[in-house]
Amino acid sequence: MGRPGYLTPPIFAVLAAIGYVYYTTVFVAVAGWLGLTTAAGVANAAAFTALTAACLATYAAAASRDPGRVPPAYLPDVEDAEIPVHEVKRKGGDLRYCQKCGHYKPPRAHHCRVCKRCVLKMDHHCIWINNCVGHENYKIFLVFVSYAVLACFYSMILIVGSFLHSAPKAEQLGGDSSKTSIIICGIILCPLTLALSVLLAWHIYLILQNKTTIEYHEGVRAMWLAEKGGDLYHHPYDLGVYENLTSVLGRRIFCWLCPVSTNTGNGLRFRALHDIPLSTPPCDLQKIALHSQ
């Protein structure tokens, strides 16, 4: 596994897949079906080229953008009334402290064993971008996946249309090599489209509840423990659908698909649904705050 910011085999694999799908879609499918000299052919080629460029730009931004580092001098202020939630350890009820980094962890921050650092509002470490997905690049990562899903479906439509158009006229396609390229492209696109669509749907689900992937899995356990103790578990950062969306995508709806980070806050403190009194004992905090070591 390469260090963050370095080119790795998974990154080369992603770039190779994008390059092959783009070449086959434009110079084989569109050229053989609509032609690159017709208005329809030029329009589709230009649209797919722009969509591919958007995918590459957002992919590069997600891979190169720092996901958000915890300041070395960070120190939680338990007497600050503006911070209603202080996350604590499952064992002992102490404030979360990273022994490897040597500093306290803000709410929703986690230590990444691959990057060897604490990441603000960490969602997961993605090998395909060789980077963590966290507070500063989560939206960019989501926008990349959205563009990638659109590009996959667009490419599927073009190559299927080209294949159906050329099937009864194989001699006009330019030989078996063009058919082979389209078939290989389809084989690549089918699982890729399915995987990216599931990934996009999963993160939309998480955003609507204002959860990260880590928080989802921790919430399942917290919900089980709460039900076992006769309590009702609520995710402390779930502010409602609209507030959850804008906390990640920003207030301006027209900028939601822009590859810039517009999430609210600095990643050190987050709005919570319930205002928890500072006198709340650690055992009660563990029922409503997320727990992690």
Q: How is this structure best described in words?
A:
- The chain is mainly alpha-helical and 293 residues long.
- The chain has 2 domains: 1-65 and 137-191; 67-130 and 209-293, no CATH class.
- Helix content is 49%, strand content 5%.
- It is built from 7 helices and 6 strands.
- The protein has helices at residues 9-33, 39-64, 138-166, 176-208, 213-228, 241-249, 282-288; strands at 97-98, 103-104, 110-112, 117-119, 124-126, 131-133.
- A two-stranded antiparallel sheet has the order 1-2.
- Strand 1 (97-98) and strand 2 (103-104) form a beta hairpin.
- Helix 1 crosses helix 4 (176-208) and helix 3 (138-166) runs antiparallel to helix 4.
- The longest helix is centred in the middle third of the chain and has 33 residues, at 176-208.
- The model is unreliable at 275-293 (pLDDT under 50).
Précis, in short:
With 293 residues, the protein is mainly α.
Q: Write down the overall mean pLDDT.
A: 82
Helix content: 40-55%
Strand order of the largest sheet: 1-2
Strand residues, percent = 5-15%
Question: How many distinct domains?
Answer: 2
> What's the number of helices?
7
The helix/strand series, from N terminus to C terminus, equals HHEEEEEEHHHHH
Radius of gyration: 23 Å
List the helices and strands and how they pair.
Blueprint: H1 9-33, H2 39-64, E1 97-98, E2 103-104, E3 110-112, E4 117-119, E5 124-126, E6 131-133, H3 138-166, H4 176-208, H5 213-228, H6 241-249, H7 282-288
Antiparallel strand pairs: 1-2, 3-4, 5-6
